[in-house]
Design brief:
By secondary structure, this protein is an alpha/beta fold. The chain contains 7 helices and 12 strands. The chain has one domain: Rossmann fold (3-Layer(aba) Sandwich). The model has no long low-confidence stretch (mean pLDDT 94). Bound molecules: S-adenosylmethionine.
């Protein structure tokens, strides 16, 4: 708490909701991912690093680290300066200006320069996802599917309803439930190559009796 208070005084970062931090801590302590990706550096970076510290204190073989992506140079400089010394050995803050991302019938934005590490957990809290065409979504969780080898990626989304909408459309609502009281969602989703043409089959769609189309292709993959 004192670290978060001190950080707030040095940076007027938007911060992350408590519920998001709580969900992230729970998942990281449970799944103990070695590579943690944070999309959007800030006070949350310390919380992720504190999880790594705790896991390492409990098990010296655990060598987790946080890769924290920041898309805006000014915020990257502020965040790099403000991260307390005690967390630095567990965190790498990387500048990755946002870039477009296309996948199937969605368009979004990702951080450029994400190092190719085997991420098992993602905190999705950036980059900006609106532009001249309107609202898109934050897509880092899909970008890393190009190189992550884990069958399942765990994560949490802060706010960003459009990102949760994409997760729900592809994997079903139970994959990432979102409530207005929380404005956050946690997820555990299988890695899939959505660009693989072999994934386009006549059985992709379901028509409900009332005429609603549901993209059902990958719903059964989420338990
Ligand atoms: C929701 S913020 C990320 C917050 C971060 N996870 C934290 O806990 O502090 C998303 C992005 O907005 C930008 N940003 C940070 N602080 C900001 C501020 N005070 N005003 C506007 N943009 C900000 C940064 O580029 C950041 O990555």
């Amino acid at each position: 708490m004192s670290d978060l208070d001190a950080y707030k005084k040095k940076s007027n970062t938007t911060g992350t909701q408590w519920i998001t931090l709580w969900m992230s801590v729970k998942r990281i302590l449970k799944y103990q991912p070695v590579a943690i990706l944070e999309s959007g550096t800030g006070s949350s970076t310390m919380v992720l690093a504190a999880c790594v510290k705790k896991l390492k204190a409990e098990n010296s073989d655990y060598n987790g680290r946080v890769t924290s992506m920041e898309s805006v140079a000014a915020w990257h400089a502020i965040a790099s300066e403000n991260l307390p010394e005690k967390y630095r050995e567990h965190v790498e803050i990387i500048l990755g200006p946002r870039e477009k991302f296309e996948m199937g019938f969605f368009r979004g934005y990702v951080h450029s320069n994400i190092p190719k590490r085997n991420y098992g957990f993602v905190l999705l809290d950036a980059p900006a996802f609106d532009d001249d065409h309107g609202l898109s979504f934050c897509a880092d969780v899909f970008k890393i599917m190009d190189f992550v080898t884990h069958p399942t990626i765990h994560g949490v989304v802060d706010g960003r309803a459009s990102s949760v909408f994409v997760l729900q459309t592809l994997y079903g609502p139970s994959a990432a439930r979102y409530y207005h009281s929380l404005f956050a969602a946690s997820f555990s989703i299988p890695k899939i190559d959505f660009r693989d043409p072999k994934n386009n089959t006549p059985k992709d769609w379901l028509c409900t009796p009332l005429g609603r189309l549901v993209y059902r292709k990958f719903r059964s993959l989420h338990g």
